[in-house]
Amino acid sequence: MSEIRIVSIRKIKIGSVVQCDIYSKDGALILKKGNIMTQVALARLESMGVTRVLVEAGTVELVDDTPEPSHYDTTDLPKDNIDKYSEKFVLKKEFEQGKQALLDKDIDGSQDVAKSIAGKLLDTGSVKRELEELKYGTEGVVTHSLNVSVLAGAIAIENGFPKNVVEELVIGGMLHDIGKLYIDPAVLNKKGRLDDREYTIMKTHAEEGYKKLCDNKGVSQNVRLMAFQHHENNDGTGYPKGLKGDQILFESRIIHIVDVYEAMTAKRCYKDSLLPGDVMEFVMGRYSTMFDVKAMDMFLKTIPAYKKGDLVRLSDGTRAQVLESNPKNSLRPLIVLLDTMKVVDLYTDRSFLSKTVTELISKEGEVVKTQ
Ligand SMILES: [Fe+2]
Question: Which residue has the higher pLDDT, 362 or 286?
Answer without folding.
Answer: 286
